[in-house]
Amino acid sequence: xxxxxxxxxxxxxxxxEDCCPLCALYQKCELxxxxxxxxxxxxxxSVRIQVNERGMCQTHHKQLFMMQNRLGHALxxxxxxxxxxxxxxxxxxLLPANEKRGLFSAKGGDLDPLINALDGLSNTCVxxxxxxxxxxxxxxxxxxxxxxxxxxxxxxxxxxGVCMPHAxxxxxxxxxxxxxxxxxxxxxxxLSLLKENLVQDEKDLEWFTLKFxxxxxxxxxxxSKNALERTINRLRGRCVGDEKK
Length: 245
Ligand SMILES: [Zn+2]
Ligand SMILES: [Zn+2]
Prior knowledge:
This protein has 245 residues and is mainly α. It has twelve helices and no strands. It has one domain (7-236). Residues 20, 22-23, 162-163, 166, 237 line the site of one zinc ion (ZN).
């Protein structure tokens, strides 16, 4: 597989000094994919074919729906549905033999092929797949910079690290792109940043809960006001709170 470096967005995400630069990149890609889906590109035949073929997941339909472009969204769902109706027509052949002949046995036939086919038709998302492609490039770039750019290495060592899901993702790719010595050095720095930051998040979060005690009412919040968001986002990837601008 051919990888392309894309250093500017990765550096920008690092400069944000957010909880996780890869979550920041993910969110940026997601916003631009959502915008693009409802913009002019949806009329391009190649994009149209992809959308018709793959459809979109719940999360991305929700985001598209929130964009308040009912016509654009409806056009997409309409042509995807037309495509699906053709595919559903072909599923009759997967019905268990008894049902096809109109004979029903108490035992029932094998529904698995039909279940698998319906699953396959409803679990693809063109937006998720496009984001995954971008994230693959960013992950590769991230590791390349860590390996070759002293300034990046310094920035990483002084950063908040990454969230747990992206820690696992980076290590998965590190196996391919770093040699053994680099792998263990990178893994050690990644784990130490993860622990260090989670320990701090947890301290702040505990203080956040203690602030609800009337005896602590007048004490300062310190850095605890967004500790719940920060901790959740570190544990599971960014999903709550506002993006750091
Ligand atoms: Zn992340
Ligand atoms: Zn999706």
